[in-house]
Amino acid sequence: MATHHLITTHRVANSVEATPTRTFTITNTLKLDAKAELDALSRGLLAPAASIPPKFFYDAIGSTLYNAIVLTPEYYPTRTEAAIFEMFRAEIASFIGTGKQIIDLGSGDSVKAEAWFPTLKPSSYAAIDISETAVREALARLAGNADAPTLAGLITDFSRVLDVTSVMSKEPSLFVYLGSSIGNFLPDEALWFLKQVRAHCSAEGSGLLIGVDAKKDAARLDAAYDDALGVTAAFNLNTLRHVNQLLGTDFDVRGWQHRGFYNAALGRIEMHLEACRDLVVRVRGSSRKFARGERIHTENSYKYSPEQFRSILVEAGFTEPRLWQDERKDFNVFYAKA
Ligand code: AVI
C-alpha cells in the first residue's frame, strides 16, 4: 500500500544508477499538492463531523504498522488475494496477454506486481505511489534483476487526480490496482477513479487487473479491522502523531481510542478515533473541542459483491470483466478489458 511523505518531496526527475545493467527515472509531482492537502486536513479537523483522510495513516510508522496488519490472522484480504493469484495465475494471464506495459497503481514494495513478470513478460513497468522511499527501494531491487523490464517511477497522489501519462508508452497497458485499495474510495469516487484509468487505456489491448474485497459475515470483518493484538488500533492512532507533525496540532494519543467496525447498511468498514474524555485540540490557531465519545472518521473500506463491482467496471467503460475468487469467496479479483 502507498506510504506517505507529503512534505519532504521535490519536483524533480532524477536518474538513479542501481546496478551496472539497469537505470530508472523517478518523477515526483507531490510537492505541488502539499499546501492544498494541509489546508484540507485542517478543514476536516475543524468541521462539525471531524475527519482525517486515510492517506495520513502512512508515515514511516504507519507504513510499518500496515505491513504488520497484513500479517495478523484476522486481516485476510492481502493473503487471500495472493492465494487467488497463486491458484489462477496462468489462467488470468491467458486473458491479459503478454508484452504489455504494467502500470502499478499504489505499487508500494512492488512485490505483488513483480510476481507477474515471469508470466506476463511486460515490456515495461511503472511503479506509481505516494511514497518516494517505497518506489525508490522497490525499483532499486527490481533493477538488480537483469531480466527486469524497463523501469520507471512516479510519485503522485492519484486519489486527487490520475495523470500517469508521463510514464506511459504507446504500448497496450495493463493497469494493476491490488489489495482492495479501491474500497477506500466512496463508491462514486471509485467510479470516477476507474473512469480515469479507462481514459488512460488508449492503446488497443489494454486492461485492468484489480483486487476487491467481498462482503461477508460482519464478525469476520469487525475482527479484521480490530485485531486482537491491537495493530490496527496502533495504525489508526498513529495518524494523530502524524497529523501533529504535519500541522503542529497537539493531539495527545492517549486521549483517544480506536473504533473499527462493519456498517452493514452502507456495506463498508468504518474506522474512527474516539475521544476518551472531553478534549481541546489546537488546530492552526483555533481550538477544536471534542466531547467524550466524539469521533474523527479516518477511513472507509467498502466491500463489494461481484455483481456490484462488475457493474461499476462496466459503467466506467471496461468490458468483459472476468472474476476469480478463493474457495470461501472472501475476495474478488477482476480482469476487465478497456
Ligand atoms: C489499504 N486498504 C486497502 C486497507 C483496507 O483494508 O481498507 C487499509 C486498512 N485499514 C485498516 N486495515 C487495513
Question: Could you explain the architecture of this structure?
Answer:
- The chain contains ten helices and 14 strands.
- With 338 residues, the chain is of the alpha/beta class.
- Strands 1-2-5-4-3-6-7-14-13 form a nine-stranded mixed beta sheet, sandwiched between helices. The protein has a three-stranded antiparallel beta sheet with strand order 8-9-12.
- A hairpin with a 4-residue loop joins strand 8 and strand 9.
- Helix 2 (60-69) packs antiparallel against helix 9.
- N,N-dimethyl-L-histidine binds at residues 1, 69, 77, 179-181, 183-184, 225, 232, 299, 301.
In summary, what is this structure?
The protein has 10 helices and 14 strands.
